[in-house]
Specification:
The protein is mainly α. It has 18 helices and no strands. Helix 7 crosses helix 16 and helix 9 packs across helix 13. The longest helix has about 45 residues. The radius of gyration is 21 Å and the shape is globular.
């Protein structure tokens, strides 16, 4: 239990100490934010700090810090060390950088930021990749809560597709209406559910661990899993949202458009990522406990293990409340993912979003693509696994890109040494992604990477390291070629 408690304490201290250092690096000041300077009444408008914090937390805390860590803890107790380290030195920095770059660019979405700092050639492919990833996120975050509703609350009724339709309809409404009309009103309730559910699991887990410390010990039955999936790069793709997630950089512009002061950035961007890291630690420890209590859980799917965790530690009633909180995590990331896709497409094609009719026209092709993904991913269990796997490594490609863009920004601002806070984690995540997509775990029939059959792990890691050095060199050159106020080609 010491690893778990020390990890939570590390995150708390890290917010005040390292968070202060990172705040000095990005230097938020008193210049007008987009919400103050250019409100449009739809996507850009002032909202209070507490509401922005809840929106940001619920936007970024999808099912990754729950389902992801349920799988990720199979790498062993080392995950309880890597989650807080990665969250503080990579994830929180990533979110702070993405949010600040958006604020300083008028609330721009990630494709505009990437074009500004990494150039036209990179952003041309990246913009479409990001929209595709967001649509994968929407499909994943419809599938998982619909399955949880179907299997947990209505196991004897064919309710899955009804749940899909209801969740999808909410997503469409949330992305079409102004940010304060639906998201700004329902998120406080959703936030309360999330806090209650996570706190309940934490209290029950600590209480059980005090009585039986062995439930948080290393599980010997993880050996087969660790032999098949090496720690690097697999852990850093499996545990995404609780440690670092490129998806967050697509969500931060939503709040960057509603903040009334740059000085709120540390609490909103850095702080909410630290909170998500704490959530991930809670569920990772709970998963470790349930695997030790009954090793049969190791071979079950994540949502099933989730249900077993809640029922074991909280019972039927409170366990049901906690499942609702997890459904909320997925839904409150899926709705803003669709919103981000709409905003990204509108920026790419310069489609004004002030009128409802234009927002509807922008959403129609997005809705069609998500519907096709839902149909395909639910043909069989393997199809959904493919969907999740491509989402997992694509998500981390976004994180590497955002960190490198942040490095270019800091270099152009003359903060050469300070740029290391983004450059080093950017290089690490580039190596992770490049290694992962070149190495296919298990057999060649598993489509996790891009090379049929996959490269040997050592060769894939070597190429990944070389790729990270090349990307860093490109970022450094970009950082030196334009002045502080220069306009990028």
């Amino acid at each position: 239990m010491s690893c778990f408690l020390l990890g939570i304490l590390f995150l708390l201290i890290g917010y005040f100490v390292y968070g202060f250092i990172v705040e000095r690096v990005f230097a938020p000041d008193d210049r007008p934010t987009p919400a103050v300077a250019n409100p449009d009444g739809v996507d850009t408008m002032p909202l209070p700090l507490w509401k922005n914090n809840l929106i940001q937390l619920l936007n970024i805390a999808g099912v990754g810090p729950v389902i992801g860590v349920i799988l990720g803890i199979k790498f062993g107790k080392v995950a309880l060390l890597i989650i807080p380290l990665g969250c503080l030195f990579m994830g929180a920095v990533h979110d702070f950088a993405g949010g600040m770059m958006s604020i300083r660019s008028g609330g721009a979405n990630l494709p505009v930021i990437v074009r500004k700092y990494l150039g036209k050639w990179y952003s041309a492919a990246f913009s479409w990749f990001m929209v595709a990833l967001l649509l994968l996120v929407v499909a994943v975050f419809i599938n998982i809560p619909a399955n949880l509703i179907d299997k947990t609350f209505l196991p004897n009724l064919p309710f899955f597709w009804w749940a899909v339709v209801a969740i999808f309809a909410y997503y469409v409404a949330a992305t079409l209406f102004p940010v304060d009309k639906i998201i700004g009103r329902v998120y406080p309730l959703f936030g309360a559910l999330l806090i209650v559910g996570s706190a309940a699991i934490c209290v029950a887990l600590v209480s059980a661990a005090i009585k039986s410390p062995e439930i948080l010990s290393e599980c010997r039955d993880f050996a087969a899993f660790k032999a098949k999936f090496p720690l690097f790069p697999c852990l850093f793709v499996t545990i995404a949202c609780g440690m670092i997630s490129g998806f967050h950089a697509t969500q931060s512009p939503i709040v960057a458009r509603t903040m009334v002061s740059e000085r709120e950035a540390r609490k909103t961007f850095f702080g909410m990522m630290i909170a998500e890291g704490a959530i991930a630690m809670i569920w990772a420890a709970a998963a470790l406990a349930i695997y030790n209590i009954d090793s049969a859980n190791i071979n079950l799917e994540g949502p099933v293990v989730l249900g077993n965790i809640t029922s074991h530690f909280l019972g039927t009633w409170m366990g049901g409340v906690t499942i609702v909180a997890i459904i909320v995590l997925a839904v409150t990331s899926g709705d803003t993912a669709l919103r981000s896709a709409r905003l990204g497409i509108s920026e790419m094609f310069k489609i004004n979003q002030l009128s409802l009719s234009r927002r509807i026209l922008t959403c129609i092709p997005l809705i069609a693509v998500v519907a096709a993904l839902l149909w395909w991913s639910n043909r069989d269990s393997r199809s959904f696994a493919n969907l999740w796997n491509y989402f997992a490594w694509g998500n981390q490609l976004l994180s590497a890109t955002t960190l490198m863009a942040g490095s270019v920004w800091l270099l152009r601002e003359g903060r050469r040494f300070s740029a290391l806070v983004t450059l080093i984690p950017g290089m690490f995540m580039t190596a992770v992604v490049a290694s992962f997509i070149l190495w296919t775990p298990g057999t060649g029939s598993q489509p996790w990477g891009l090379v049929p059959g996959g490269l040997p792990l050592g060769l894939a890691v070597a190429i990944g390291a070389a790729t990270s050095v090349a990307f860093a060199a490109y970022a450094i050159v970009r950082g030196k070629t334009k002045g502080k106020s220069g306009v990028c080609p």
